[in-house]
Give the backbone structure.
Amino acid sequence: MKATAFFLFATSVAVAAVQSSPPMAMGSEPGAGEQLGPVSFAVSCSPQVEAPFNRGVALLHDFWYAEAGPQFDRIARADPNCAMAHWGIAMSSFHQIWDRPADRDLKTGWEEMQKAQSLHAKTERERAYIAALAAFYKPGYPDYMARVTAYSAAMAALYKSYPDDVDAGAFYALSLLASDAPTDTSLTHEHQAMAVLTPLFAKYPDNPGLVHYIIHACDNPSMAADGLAAAERYGVIAPSGPHAVHMAGHIFARLGMWPQDIESQVGSINASEAAVAHHEDGLMDEPHSYDFLMYAYLQSGQDAHAKEVLEKMPSVIDRIAAMPGMGGGYMEGMSAFYRIEFPVFYALEMRDWQATAALQPVAGSPPQDAALTWWARAIADGHLRHSDQAQADLAKFDALMAEVRKGRHAFFADSTGAQIERGEIAAWAGFAAGQSDAALDSMRKAADLQDKVGQGEVDIPAREMLADMLLELHQPQQALAEYRVALRLSPNRFNGLYHAGMAAEEAGDKQAAAGYYAALLKSTADGANSSRPELAHAKTFVTSSQMAAN
């Protein structure tokens, strides 16, 4: 999954910060009835660690790294001669499509790989796994991409040698996704991963790595439908994994399946709370699942529920922050981002431009988090025609990108996601200044780029914003054409459907307008849970159209 918008990248950094935070009183033995997805990973270690090792691999597949690390550490203590236990510890620090490891993680990982190599695993297959991961952690690489590319090449060779090793296939496919350059818009690696995963999934439909990595590979508009079967399967085979239950929402949101998205996020939150009650680290997905949940509520017109989530989040974050060991990197990574993100998207989706324009970053927030506020403010200031403020928003964003370039996430400042974000901000700044042609050109370029890889599941599509501009410029036919593209890539968005109806109505196409309004009413259960005036207008128009037809 490519981080195609800045806030999506910031989410990955926030999650990684939780995983890298000082250890809590977590890392417990499995609870009764735990289900993480069946794994059968053969190792030549002592028989008593066979089941624990399978659990460790399942935890890796579920990205439950904070639990996987302690699991493999227990295995290493129980069987000091188990070389693969050290492979597992090092794999727990390799968050392949979330974040790039810090220097301390690389140092620790290399130390673990040296331990693994010194123990001389008994099988050639195990030695191949260890050699592949050592290729990533080995000192001397010029940059991260060289490391991850070397690892992926080694995993390709391993899987070629052991084609019946389903986990080797899964890990190889994941390495393909991890080795995707931040500026690559071709989806080549995603298709390569699916070429590995699809036949394996047909044969091993319950392997957690296969279903998980299919979802990530298909986390873009053009491939989302190909990930639906895996999305529907993952939470069933791994209901104890908060991230496993959450992941279905990545596909459901892409396809505009809001009831299913809501169900998966509620299930993930419940799994997170159950994990914490069992002294496991289930925290990583709770705010992220609330993030998806509020967005799905807003798209389906469940405004009261969305407001409840918005109002609940500060206490959720405070509760997590107060737990033992949750300081430092956690507070910098997750807390600031989510304190910014929830108000931003609630205000934007409700099209409350005044409230959005007044938002402020959380004091002391990292630059990648603060950037989200200025992106949102630029959208609002553009709609409000606040030219000076919109230009200031752009300047703030550029200054924050300069800060990002100074840190270990410098690669993102020139990534596809950052290019899209800046293009959107520049477009709204131009729009506010009355520079319509330049604004439309900038937004169209951002939309064309974003369309190739997809916007974040919690996002406002650039293509929809382009249509919004055209509608405000009284070009309804052109706006309708852009709304149609936006809705094909991001189905059933509340504002997309409504404003497509408005554009059709203003263009004199009453049949198309009635169709979009009817789709909005269907997606929101006839507006039963919302008092938004958009729904009242849609109802009136559809009713009038039906009466005229009769």
About this structure: Residues 463-550 form a domain with the Serine Threonine Protein Phosphatase 5, Tetratricopeptide repeat fold (CATH 1.25.40.10). The first helix runs from residue 6 to 20. The chain has 26 helices and no strands.
